[in-house]
Design a protein that fits this description.
Blueprint lengths: L12 E4 L3 E2 L11 H14 L5 E6 L2 E6 L1 H9 L4 E6 L4 H14 L5 H15 L3 H8 L3 H9 L5 H9 L4 H7 L5 H14 L3 H12 L5 H5 L4 H14 L3 E5 L4 E5 L4 H12 L11
Parallel strand pairs: 2-4, 3-5
Antiparallel strand pairs: 1-5, 3-4, 6-7
Length: about 280
């Protein structure tokens, strides 16, 4: 992958602010205005300490890396900015923009999920290859991609930070869009914790039990284990008790998601055991 930062010894030149346009492959859609203003004030005092990286395009230049610095320079009233010019293809531009933001954790969860999906699609990578490329675990990749299964309203709440990743993972256990949205609204309106959200999801899933389930008294201990497993494995889990034993049903959404679950089960020591007898 082409480096996103200026390399030692590369020539740096001043380029007019107005000659530069944003990276069209930039996955980041939200910039913290307060932090941007703080950076602009630093730029006014100290200038731009790290050159941005650009590529030449028709009519000027396109940012490869350093959009926050470029935006801050505009706010600070600078007319030019130090930059390194590099030759990059569209494919390299996309890879740099997506991977740099993921590695620096500059994206909100939904932006990261969309960036990961775009890398998978555009470059034909497997989740394992993508995990190695961005320096994340395969389970992290799978968990982030599952956010794209949420309804638009729930995704918007994740993007805004109204609900956390923990809330989102709990809501994923609800298959129906309407139920997801209703539960999400309760989480926001009541300020529910992740644990309370998991309980809300469990109640929603069991609101209409089958005739056989109605005859069976649900063991609170089994409910607690079910919730613990859902949280640990980041997927739907159901415990079906029988007369002498029972079965555990674990949901998965693709072959790679199944591989992630197998990997998680092999590392069973990471699953909290405080609720187990």
């Amino acid at each position: 992958m082409p480096a996103a930062q200026a390399r030692e010894g590369e020539p740096v030149q001043e380029i007019g602010i107005e000659e530069i346009r944003p990276n069209s492959f930039q996955p980041r859609r939200v910039f913290d205005e307060e932090k941007l203003a703080e950076l602009a004030e630093s730029v006014r005092v100290h200038g731009i300490l790290q050159p941005v990286v650009v590529r030449a395009v028709i009519g000027g230049y396109e940012l490869v890396a350093g959009e926050r610095r470029w935006r801050a320079a505009q706010l600070a009233g600078l007319s030019s900015i130090p930059a390194v010019i590099r030759e990059l293809s569209d494919g390299e531009m996309m890879e740099v923009a997506l991977i740099e933001n993921i590695q620096r954790e500059d994206l909100n969860p939904l932006e990261e999920a969309e960036a990961l999906q775009r890398l998978l699609t555009e470059f034909g990578l497997t989740q394992e290859e993508l995990a190695q490329r961005v320096g994340k675990s395969r389970s992290h990749i799978a968990n982030m991609l599952r956010l794209l299964n949420l309804t638009d309203e729930v995704q918007n709440n994740v993007s805004r930070g109204t609900i956390s990743m923990g809330h989102a993972r709990a809501l994923l256990a609800l298959d129906e869009a309407q139920a997801q949205v209703a539960a999400c609204r309760q989480v926001v309106e009541k300020g529910l914790s992740v644990r309370q959200t998991e309980e809300l999801v469990r109640e929603t899933r069991h609101k209409r039990p089958s005739a056989r389930q109605k005859k069976t008294t649900v063991d609170p201990w089994l409910q607690e284990i079910e919730t613990t497993l859902k949280h640990a494995l980041a997927t739907g889990v159901r415990i079906r008790p029988g007369r002498r034993g029972g079965k555990i049903e674990i949901e998965y959404y693709s072959t790679e998601d199944l591989e992630r679950l197998v990997e998680a089960l092999q590392e069973a020591s990471d699953i909290p055991s405080s609720n187990l007898r």
